[in-house]
Amino acid sequence: MITTDSLKLSAIALASLMLCACATVPAGGNGAAAAPAAAASAPATAASGAPGAPGAPSPMTARPPADPTAPKPFAEVSRDTKRQDGLFPILRKDEKVWLEIPRAMLNKPFLFTINISSSIGERGFYASQMGPDVMAEWRRVGNMIQLVALNTRFRAEGGGKRAVEEAFSPSLLAAGPVASADHPERKSFLVDAGLLLTDIPGMSTRMEMAFRLPYSVDRSNSYFETTRADGTLSTLSAKVHYFTPRIPAPPLVAPPVPVPPPPMATPDPRSMFMGFVYNFRALPEAAMPTRRADGRLGHFTESFNDLSDDSKANTRVHYINRWRLEKKDPSAALSEPVQPIVYWMDKNIPAKYRPAVEAGILEWNKAFEKIGFKNAVVAKQQPDDADWDNMDAQHASIRWFVGADVGFAIGPSHVDPRTGEILDADIGMSDVFSRGGRAFISEDVPRLTSLSDEEKALAQMNQGWREGRNASYCTYAMDAASEMNFALDILEARGDIDPNSPEAEAFVQARIKDVIMHEVGHTLGLKHNFKASTTVSQAQLKDKAYTDAHGISGSVMDYNAYNIPLEGEAPTSYNNTTLGAYDYWAIEYAYKTVGKEQEEAELTRIASRNTEPGHAYADDTDAGGFGPYDGMDPMINRFDLGDDPLAYYQKRLKLSQELWNRVQNRKPVAGEDPLRQRRSLINGFMQLGRASELVGKYVGGMYTVRDVPGASRPALTPVDPAKQREALRFLATGLFSADSFRFKPEFLSSLTTDYVEFARPQWVSIPAAVSTVQLAALNRLLSVSTAVRLMELPNYVPASQRKGIISLNEVYGTLQSSIWSELKTGGEIDRLRRNLQREYLRRLQANLTHGNATGQFADAYALMRFQATQLQSELRAAQSRGGQSVETRAHIAESLDLLSTTLKATMTRT
Fold first, then answer.
1. Model-level pTM?
2. How many domains does the chain have?
3. Residue 158 included in any domain
4. Is the pLDDT assigned to residue 178 strictly greater than 80?
5. Residue 773, in any domain of the structure
């Protein structure tokens, strides 16, 4: 049967044959077939003459014209260029740059990295940042060259490599035509480096996400600034121009979701340059021995799926990230390394902060000395007149950068994906301590999270190529600056410190050292440890001898709060000044020299010390705060202190109230910063905003420990009911109480703004700030995850011990009665309490009309409706009682109407 498709194919084939026939007709048109290529290129031997005559050149033997698409000779392309020898030699002539690719280097893996040397200074786009890294190779296809990122996420370490390669694709990063023929001696060819002047880092997507504008690379206005090469490295620093044709006009009607503004830090928001440092680095010829990860302590890992053995249920493999550290004298108990870990301090670091940065780097030598390495970590200062950039792939560095809205430090690294060997690291340190810290905290309503959801998403995209490889976005510097501001405000208000004194400068220097220790720890391969602060008791925090010797936390890898004494208490150490017990332990596991035969047993022995005091460990996922992870262990937090976090939060409320009382009693001085008082006010709110959510973790909480199967300790233990009830009482009497947020009218009316600025903050809204604090706890207590855990807690407790266990109904009842306590007393309901009650009703309405009344939440839904019905009765009784102000009566009537409507509504079941 002849189909339409077969007829089409026949027609195409016939046309192809006709085209081929036409192509083989000689120029004379006599219909003879063309000569084979070898004959066509043979030298002519006959003398010239008439066609067909003896000695006349035959059409069959004439030399064809040169192929216009063939690459030009190497010597012609490279004429008058300046050459830099390296892994891939770099040739340059005026604005043109070429890479020389030896044929022997085709299909040979190397490390390709991109660092961001300059940017626009806002919304997540900052200078001095490490970008992606991949194992890549050059592939030649005809006269095209391809830069290909190899797929290292799926491997076959023990066989089956071909099947894996066929199953999982690599990615094309860049491509272009070969620029020259082969060099006759070196067997290499040239490639136009302009193929790199594209959006390889994916910045256009990030910019669209940040600004909701389509930016593209403008190749014609992008160029290479500098180049550098040596035997194992080739580096090209490029300026890439991004543009958008136009900025759209704002909508006439406000959209339901606010549209972010265009870039504000550039002269023209349609145009911006970003600096990228492209590094081609040779992988070590001798691969470093790998070291397996152990979940009882935290290291960044090179993680992949090994599909070579189909008998393994879990195909995941995790090699820890670590520098190659080998003793010069293997027999010595203490030896210098063959190659130390060298950090170059950027010349942009202000001279007055360099000693603190250096101290933070060198502090880690204490941990390496414990395992036999002397001077394992070295700090060097980049000369102020240096003409080289430490953002290449061979200089680990501490980079100092600025921005319009920046306030963080970050400690990423680039590794050999085959083994996890750290090859480069560039710590980014913003000026948050000298300038940005105070500027950050000037909003009317405090930012109670370190990063917005959009900023977190941008951070994750920035790490997109490096899944499982130091992919943690660290905001310690910004949050630590907030902590520092709060501490300085209190100490200044007490008269214990002058903000312009040497003591205040030492205060800042100590915090810089703390943050540098933290970020250097990341670049040594250590993840966050958000449980470390709980390994120090409340009594030890008050013991100056202890804190001077051991610090205030079990690890510098925690987000450690300031150890501020209550009024009348003697001060000890304010912040962390040295490594903790966990840091020594984690470095030992990663870097201790162990023979291959003894490695398995020795690593197991080291990791099994997780039960020792000071070795508690938990990471970002355990702490929660992103994605589906809400953090159920109240002992795992960012910015708490001591072995009783709830006591710490109660202390923080007292400190905030002390600060507010002192600021209200202080008279502003002419000539001082007009935003000073409002910053102090908001610094107190920021502390309570963080505490509010974390207190809620106790309710329905589970204590967790990291251990191996068969360990003597249970992995999960419900929080003691008494502790859960204490947390509820603290919320009811502390953060939910309007009395905790009383301010003098004279103080509020004195809060001015900076009238020199056009875009300036307006008046401070205390109800808005209070609401932000309270809703953090309210959202957690009424969440589905908290409800589910409370209902499941009895499953983790023996039947004989279930008496007195806290129930979901008790939590809902306690929460509702504390929020609506005025209904029973008949008292006035002030504005702060009315706001809280309205927010409570909104959450009831959402859960009862649009929630999930089936599955795991079914019982919670029934209990919530039961409590709502009781509240309806209490509101009716309060309404009939009367006697309150018109505002209170109106609020009760509106609340009753909203609740009654909600209870009558049809449930949208999902």
1. 0.87
2. 1
3. yes
4. yes
5. no
